[in-house]
Amino acid sequence: MSNDKGLQDAHVKIGAKQTIKVVELGQATEVYVAEDADQRLVSKIVSLCSKHNVKITYVDTMQHLGKACGIEVGAAMAAIIKQ
To answer: Order of strands, edge to edge, in the sheet holding 28-34?
Structure first.
């Protein structure tokens, strides 16, 4: 997330359910995971991403990830969708 606009311009799914779904469907190219998210969710998405060969990038807090996604609340995870 090096650009100033964060994840707002990309095709993004935000939230655990949406992220897990797109990874399972093989539509995700990269997943961002907040390090302070629920560990059960984190371990589930980590194993799914390794199974589907999806890159994971860790973000320090849910608040930062939410802000990068352009939402007012924290986000546990977000996925970039294949175009």
So the answer is: 12-14, 77-81, 28-34, 55-59
